[in-house]
Design brief:
Strand content: under 5%
Structural class: mainly alpha
Strand order of the largest sheet: 1-4
CATH class: Mainly Alpha
Largest sheet: 2 strands, antiparallel
Number of helices: 15
Helix content: over 70%
Distance between the termini: 24 Å
Length: 350
């Protein structure tokens, strides 16, 4: 019986990860074919990217009343992204990065991490906190688009704070929508060619979108149900299962992207993938899950995993600041810290 549940757990994980890949890729393709602007696609589909597995599993967990599993998934994912994924990537190759990765995105990740901990001190992550997190996520995505449009200026965390409190994201969204509505006239011959191309690829994209959606739904369901099952079997809390099992499983896309980027020497992509994913995990995923139901916080999160997440974020920023690169020695330190974290977590339980 336990073997069957283990197989279902693996099947659920595979369906969730591969379904997410198919869903995001096909949805982006369909959006482009239908004339949706790059602004909207970047703000929604592409931004989700590797965070879809965490989003799906956390939403299902929240819907099933396992809010502690959702929080464990997010916290464990963020710790794994830095300690396990970035640690392995840095051991493979020295990861070079830029100052803005620290002053803008890195500080925002640390801010999100500390704000989350402040919100859960009372033992509950409620809908007010969830709404604020979602608003911060929208502001962050629009801020990135604004930063990309004005490459001559170096933006940092202070700019984001002013942008947020001055409601700059509303202006950015309005300008993006207005520009997308100004469509250029296309010659009739080009229109016919585009129409034929649209029809040729749409069926494939729709099929992949459906397959991906089904994979996400069933994958998240099996993953969460079997995770809860093993938590009960081994007398572990949902938080611990979320941190160790679900978090590592749903972080596989980040692992794949980061290792590939490290091998090819794209340090910015590697670090940016981890930092961006951590911000999305907190602001977007906990925001959505917290709107579904108030997330009850386990004592393990308050006293152990939460502080470790803050520590790992600080360590990452220190390593980035050191000559603007993460060296193999520092990668080994991050990897060792992660292994120690998992060992202590299991030791505390048993």
């Amino acid at each position: 019986m336990v073997f069957v549940n283990f197989i279902l757990l693996i099947v659920g994980l595979v369906l969730l990860v591969k379904g997410s890949d198919f869903f995001v890729e096909s949805a982006s393709s369909i959006a482009k074919r239908m004339g949706v602007s790059e602004f909207v696609i970047g703000l929604t589909l592409v931004a989700l990217g590797t965070s879809v597995p965490e989003l799906a599993s956390s939403v299902v967990a929240a819907a099933k009343g396992a809010g502690d599993l959702a929080i464990g998934n997010v916290v464990g994912s963020n710790i794994a992204n830095i300690g396990l994924i970035l640690g392995i990537a840095a051991v493979i190759a020295v990861i070079k990065t830029k100052k803005q990765m620290l002053t803008r995105d890195g500080f925002l990740m640390l801010f999100a991490t500390c704000l989350f901990y402040i919100f859960i001190i009372d033992g509950v992550f409620g809908w007010i906190e969830a709404l604020l997190f979602l608003l911060l996520y929208v502001a962050y995505m629009t801020f990135l688009i604004k930063s990309k449009d004005k490459m001559e200026k170096e933006y940092h965390f202070g700019h984001f704070v002013r942008y947020f409190f001055r409601f700059g994201y509303i202006v950015t969204i309005r300008n993006g929508i207005q520009s997308s509505l100004k469509k250029k006239k296309i010659p009739s011959r080009k229109k016919a060619a585009l129409k034929q191309k649209f029809r040729a690829g749409m069926l494939r994209d729709l099929a992949l979108l459906f397959i991906g959606g089904v994979g996400i739904v069933f994958g998240a369901r099996y993953l969460v149900e079997e995770a809860i099952f093993f938590a009960n079997i081994f007398n572990l809390s949902n938080t611990v299962i979320g941190v160790i099992l679900v978090a590592v499983g749903t972080s596989l896309p980040e692992l794949s992207v980061s290792i590939t980027a490290a091998k090819k020497g794209y340090g910015d992509i590697c670090v940016g993938n981890v930092i961006g994913s951590n911000i999305a995990n907190l602001f977007l995923i906990l925001g959505v899950a917290g709107l579904i139901t108030p997330l009850v916080v386990d004592i393990t999160t308050l006293l152990f995993t939460g502080p470790v997440m803050i520590l790992m974020a600080i360590m990452l920023l220190i390593f980035i600041r050191s000559r603007w690169k993460i060296r193999r020695t520092e990668g080994l330190i991050l990897l060792t810290m992660y292994c120690l974290f998992i060992s202590l977590l299991l030791f505390r339980i048993f």
